[in-house]
Design goal:
By secondary structure, this protein is an alpha/beta fold. The protein has 2 domains: 343 residues, NAD(P)-binding Rossmann-like Domain (Rossmann fold); 126 residues, no CATH class. Helices cover 51% and strands 11% of the residues. The strands form 4 sheets. A 7-stranded parallel beta sheet has the order 3-2-1-4-5-7-11, with helices on both faces. Strand 4, helix 7 and strand 5 form a beta-alpha-beta unit. Helix 13 crosses helix 18 and helix 14 runs antiparallel to helix 15. The radius of gyration is 25 Å and the shape is globular. Pfam families: NAD_binding_4 (PF07993), Sterile (PF03015). Belongs to the fatty acyl-CoA reductase family.
Length: 511
Amino acid sequence: MAEEQARSEAEGDVLPWTVAEFFRGQSVLLTGGSGFLGRVLLEKLLFYCPDIDTVYVLLRPRKGLSVQERLQKMLDVPLFDRVRAQRPEALGRLQAVEGDTARPGLALAEADARVLAERVSVVFHLAASVRFDDPLITAVRTNACATRDLLELATRMTKLKALVHVSTTFCNVGQREFEEKLYPVAGDWRSILALVEARGQSDSVALRALTTKILGPYCNTYTFTKNLAEHIVNHYSDRLPVGILRPSVVVATALDPFPGWIDNFNGPMGLMVGAGKGVVHTSYNDPDSHIDYVPCDVVVKGIVMCSCEVARKGLGPPLVYNAAQAGLHRITQGRLIDIAHEASAELPFSDTLYHPCCNITRNRLLFLVQFFFFHLVPAVIGDAVLSATGRKPMLIRLQRRIYSANMALSFFLLQNWDFSSKRFLGLEKRLRPEDREGFSYQLDGVIFEAFFRDALRGTRRYLMKEPDSNLPQAIRAYKRKLIIHLMLKALFYVAIIWMILSTLHFLFLAE
């Protein structure tokens, strides 16, 4: 099997069916369907696979909404406009299933588990907690235990053709160059899962105390548990057809269904929004480092292609793909901030706290000094004003969260990472001509600067809910705050010069 796989990859054999043919009559189970990647994947399947049978979406009730109501709310966004306009009947193929990846056995009712076991032939496991500061108990349950429970459910699926587990390129440590293969496991996953399940409720304090020792060289619980999950998938590979796809930092869509769709603050968009709103003025970051960004639609196309390749491969060691550097040029963090500053003049946010400006530095002491003067001091003054006017103070709390987020990300922002993506890019060779329009993810013609401008425009429209009609007003406010910023900057330098001259004058008089 391994020799046949290697020969197939070397020769670039095309798939024996188109993507639409592969999914014809198939039922799919999707976890993480309410997330960024999950919703884009749903749209892709519904639009390009018109004969798919049923897509089961695992959801939990939330904020008083049933799972079916949550599903309907998930679809009520511009992302699905294309499906509503051209394939409205496809929306009827979606079916919500009540479950929870943070609970034992996915909290599935036995009747639902039986239906899934009888009908599902393709599984996409996208659900995960992506918070870096989750307690070990939460991260293990959501990212590792849930993966094991899903794989156990998959062993009951009599029609299963492929299971794709979505991981992350950052789930390994020890070097800065990563190939498309499994790396050593972070720990004995069986013992860690057993420990959490046996003592999580009764001895959570002890587990928190042991977290640092258990994590070892891993910088947070997210990367640690995603590594465990990969090896859990590998453990089941002799019984299930499985594949692992590792995205790098996922950003807005580049082309499909349209440029700039985004619905979360993860990755660079959080920094760009914070700087654009005048809340973030300094970042502990290396302006010369390169972070690997990949558009969401590219990752989703890779997930679909991975399922097709896994189905052709069958049982055996999991195929591993690094969804990284998909034809886009590398860009430094410093250049990214420059693009954000330039785009802010064309696409400013409304109701900004201050003129958009952000300095990045790799010097931690300088960062702390800048954070004190540009973040904490204004926050203290702002909260005092809010309290005096009878409003709830919130700026210090906000700055505490910004600081914690920056510290958590600094491990990734202060160094370069290189991910081999030869196999991932090689999936393009498997495409049949009929699939190239919908599933080709080579973006050689995309200009990165234009891409991030589209992403910022999408952030303004879809994430911040600001209509294009208020742009003229926002631009006028931007210009007013720019003038105030320049005046304050000039006053600052005048004060510095005055202090220097005053000191020199005093020294000369003293002589």
